Amino acid sequence: MKTLRILNLALLVAFPVAWFAPLLRAGILPLFSLNEISVMSGVIDLWQIDIFLAVLVTFFALVAPICKTLGLAMIHAGRMDARALPVLHLFGRLAMADIFLISLYIVVIKGIGVGRVETGWGLYLFTACVLLSLWVSFTTERLEKAAKKDINAHG
């Protein structure tokens, strides 16, 4: 459980770094410079174009994953009861929508499809954060269920 706690706390740092890191570099023609696109730059651009969609993307891409991570940190620290896991599981499901939404708004807002696109290191960091977050959630739920079964079997 200590390893889970440390990995989950690392996500509290890694997620914000991934939000500002370049996911992609995109340009219209090969001769022009490429613009770096991050989660935050996309959300900022979106706020200027469509506030409603910006709020949705902000919730799915930023709020849901960090709330889930904070909740798991509180469970690991013994500050929150494990009965909150179903709610955190819901946040985890909502947070998975961020990958799809971010991909869509990059295509729509930046007009990628007629130019050049290169992946940035932030894409790998963001992917690692999402996968690690899934693993920590899954493992925490599994350990909590096992502990509950063990308590019921012995007492």
From TrEMBL:
<feature type="transmembrane region" description="Helical">
    <location>
        <begin position="49"/>
        <end position="75"/>
    </location>
</feature>
<keyword id="KW-0472">Membrane</keyword>
<keyword id="KW-1133">Transmembrane helix</keyword>
<feature type="transmembrane region" description="Helical">
    <location>
        <begin position="87"/>
        <end position="109"/>
    </location>
</feature>
<feature type="transmembrane region" description="Helical">
    <location>
        <begin position="121"/>
        <end position="139"/>
    </location>
</feature>
<keyword id="KW-0812">Transmembrane</keyword>
<dbReference type="Pfam" id="PF04403">
    <property type="entry name" value="PqiA"/>
</dbReference>
<dbReference type="InterPro" id="IPR007498">
    <property type="entry name" value="PqiA-like"/>
</dbReference>
<protein>
    <submittedName>
        <fullName>Paraquat-inducible protein A</fullName>
    </submittedName>
</protein>
